[in-house]
UniProtKB/TrEMBL annotation:
Record's keyword terms, sorted: Zinc
InterPro entries: GlcNAc_PI_deacetylase-related, LmbE-like_dom_sf
Superkingdom of origin: Bacteria
One GO term of the biological process aspect: glycoside metabolic process
A Pfam family this chain is assigned to: PIG-L
Protein name stated in the entry: LmbE family N-acetylglucosaminyl deacetylase
Lineage: Bacteria, Bacillati, Actinomycetota, Actinomycetes, Geodermatophilales
MF (Gene Ontology): hydrolase activity, acting on carbon-nitrogen (but not peptide) bonds, in linear amides
Length: 246
């Protein structure tokens, strides 16, 4: 007898639309640009929703009022490298994100606009083995996105103004992919698109310009991930915790 409550054990082989919700420009490229490149190559339409402009980032004397617009431009350039044309910014303050109803509503709005079958975001859990992955903004965006996925975006009675004023009907997301998760259970082999990932990261000059060997650092990181998941020697991978929500 079929279990009516059974959920898939593997992510969908292909989806038509995917939405990546991250805190800062460059977050998606450090953790997921290779995976995104495989999706766009397979015909998936990918949208980026970046919650802040990254105005608290950088390593030089760039005036603060210039940093946000600069990082927006860098993110759009990086997105183009991996086949993403739709890049949206919510404009929240970098480094000061908090769980709020406003943020849940704004992410729910984008979900209902894009209507993705898959959402990629950051893990809301702290990663004690790699504390840099657990920036408070990352965890806040991950938790806010999960709250938007369930229950807000799919509940026709949540945020009624989105329907009444904007015509945005409820939408159910089937999968959520959590990056930088301490319980990652799925690896994507990105060996064939590693050069594109490095190129996308290189677009973020305000953030990586001080790194003498970005290529070596990122490839070493992905090589370790591939080894952890049992991929063949010489392969490169990105890892996620895949949550089935539908």
């Amino acid at each position: 007898m079929t279990n009516p409550f059974a959920r898939p054990t593997q992510p969908a082989e292909h989806v038509e639309r995917a939405l990546c919700v991250l805190a800062h420009p460059d977050d998606v490229d450090f953790g997921s640009a290779g995976t995104v490149a495989t999706w766009t190559a397979a015909g998936t339409e990918v949208t980026y929703c970046i919650v802040t402009d990254g105005d608290a980032g950088g390593f030089d004397e760039t005036p603060r009022h210039e940093m946000g617009p600069l990082r927006q431009a860098e993110q759009r350039a990086a997105a183009a490298v991996v086949g993403v044309e739709d890049v949206r910014f919510l404009g929240y303050p970098d480094g000061r994100l908090e769980l709020s109803l406003d943020l849940r509503r704004d992410i729910s709005r984008v979900i209902r606009q894009v209507r993705p079958q898959r959402v990629l975001t950051s893990s809301p859990e702290r990663f004690w083995d790699r504390i840099g992955a657990s920036h408070p903004d990352h965890m806040t965006v991950g938790e806010s996105t999960l709250r938007a996925v369930y229950p807000d975006a799919r509940n026709p009675f949540a945020w009624p103004e989105l329907l009444a004023d904007e015509g945005l009907e409820a939408w159910t997301v089937a999968e959520v992919w959590l990056g930088a998760s301490p319980r990652a259970d799925h690896a994507v082999d990105v060996t064939a698109v590693a050069d594109r990932k490095i190129e996308a990261l290189s677009c973020h000059k305000s953030q990586v310009g001080h790194m003498p060997d970005l290529d070596g650092f990122v490839r070493g990181w992905m090589s370790q991930t591939a080894q952890r998941f049992g991929l063949a020697e010489g392969r490169l991978a990105e890892a996620f915790h895949v949550v089935h929500t539908a």
